[in-house]
Amino acid sequence: MTFSAEDFAKALEAHDYDFQVGSTVRGTVISCANDGATIDIGGKSSAFLPIREAAVRAVTSLEGVLEPGAEYSFQVIRDQDADGQVLLSIRKLQLKRLWDKLAQQADEGAVLDVKVTGYNKGGVTVDVEGLRGFVPRSHLGRTYENLEEAVGQRLTVGFLEVNPAANKLVMSARIAARSQVMSTLELGQLIEGTVASLKPFGAFVEFDGISGLLHIKQISKNYVESLSAVLKVGQPIKAVVVGLDPDRNRISLSTKVLEKYPGELIKESEAVFEDAENRLGDISRMLGDSEA
């Protein structure tokens, strides 16, 4: 049986070129223009890539983005119109890869360097490889009288939420600072900080941009009846790191290991703190005597 030119033409007509929206296709760049690029994806007519769909970051020219004659992967974002033309996107594919990458980085506890691009009353917006991220005011890691001051600055941030379905990327400078400081902390290390708040179970101490818990049982070897009688919010304090839990982001502190006798810190806290460096001594022995 012979296969004529007419048979071949009919076979082409019968071939399914109905590119489904959301599918990934390979195509070759035919030409580039100011508004986009013409792409050969093997259909009856060429496809078109609008310039806004060429990359995650907005571009004003395709020069250096696409190379005529080169082959790329595209996502179909509109099926054939009346002229048989399909609309394509590279941006959609890049976004999927970027969200997957960020989700993995969040799972690994990674930190990123980002630039502040804007602000509102709740916090600042940042550029994360072309994606718009948000850092709540409470997670900036420092206090700004006016958030406009932060625009243009760079922040080191960790992840609070990565939600591609909601196009929601929430970052935290506080988490990044905590992660970086925790990686340098060691058991038995003396820290200098400030009492940030008092709770029934102890005091939170801020140091190096993060906070640790000084449990009420770790303040003195004697029973502490009134926490507010021993410590004040804003008070400078020195304490020893007695517990590190990176998985739960917890730092446990102790001042009782600095005491020469039970109750010394309750009676003479200033003297204890002034002599803290000299009192470290055999820290392994002191930590062994302390309660975790």
Q: Explain this structure to me?
A:
This protein folds into three domains: 5-89, Beta Barrel (OB fold (Dihydrolipoamide Acetyltransferase, E2P)); 109-178, Nucleic acid-binding proteins (OB fold (Dihydrolipoamide Acetyltransferase, E2P), Beta Barrel); 185-289, Nucleic acid-binding proteins (OB fold (Dihydrolipoamide Acetyltransferase, E2P)), CATH 2.40.50.140. The strands form three sheets. The chain has a five-stranded antiparallel β-sheet. Strands 8-7-6-9-10 form a five-stranded antiparallel β-sheet. A five-stranded mixed beta barrel has the order 11-12-13-15-14. It contains eight helices and 15 strands. A hairpin with a 2-residue loop joins strand 7 (123-128) and strand 8 (131-136). It has helices at residues 5-14, 91-107, 173-182, 227-230, 264-267, 269-274, 276-279, 283-289; strands at 24-32, 36-40, 47-50, 71-78, 87-89, 112-120, 123-128, 131-136, 154-163, 168-172, 190-199, 202-207, 210-215, 236-245, 250-254. The mean pLDDT is 87. It is α+β, with helices and mostly antiparallel strands and 292 residues long.
Using brief descriptors, characterize the structure shown:
single chain; 292 residues; alpha+beta; OB fold (Dihydrolipoamide Acetyltransferase, E2P); 3 domains; five-stranded antiparallel β-sheet; 15 strands; rod-shaped
